[in-house]
Amino acid sequence: MTTEFILRLFVAAILGGAIGLERGYRAKEAGFRTHFLVALGSALFMVISQFGFMDILTHEGINVRLDPSRVAAQVVSGIGFIGAGTIIFQKHVVRGLTTAAGLWVTAAIGMTCGSGMYVLATTATVMVLICLEVLNYVMQRFGTRNIAITFSSPSLDFVRQVLDRFRKDGMSIDSYNMREDKTPGNPHYTVSFEVKVKRDKYESRLLSIMEELDGVRIESIE
After folding, report:
1. What is the pLDDT of residues 168-194, one digit of tens each?
2. Which stretch of DSSP H or E encloses residue 208?
3. Backbone angles phi, psi at 177, to 5 degrees
4. In the 3-class helix/strand/coil scheme, how is 96-115 assigned residue by residue?
């Protein structure tokens, strides 16, 4: 029986690690080790929940009723704490939701392996990997992203030209902030704003727009 338990843990770790490799390749918040440990721990809790207290039932004179799913049920709520740690709110954008959902599914896959349902766990893993890869392709091809840009200009006319050029190119400006430096002999304006642009073209489009406008110096692009 112990060999069967070890096999369940091994399969869970391998399947969780496969999802973690994809997340690590995409440089996400949780990678191989996190998914490996989540799947392994979930499978271990499942095994303990089902078989960890069997010896109590074999004692004579003891009338005990056990719920074999009680320990495993806590994994569902407990994994939420780990998933929440991967979600961050940065520059008006929520990031890490997909990775958090991946950890949640990885825990379910680990529990499935802990129950000995290898085919179901493997099928779920394949479906997760397909979803992540297809989602990445769709987002890169058709999705948009928010870019934070900071540039400086010696005149307000250049600032207006930059903003107008972005709007004419179909980019929407979400936020805008301008600071004026009134240094004698060298006045200039520093502008920070966020723009929403398609992912597949944002680098070339942003740089080409900036290069077209003389007198504008890029401070940062994030």
Report:
1. 776 777 777 778 777 666 667 788 877
2. helix 202-212
3. -150, 135
4. CHHHHHHHHHHHHHHHHHHC
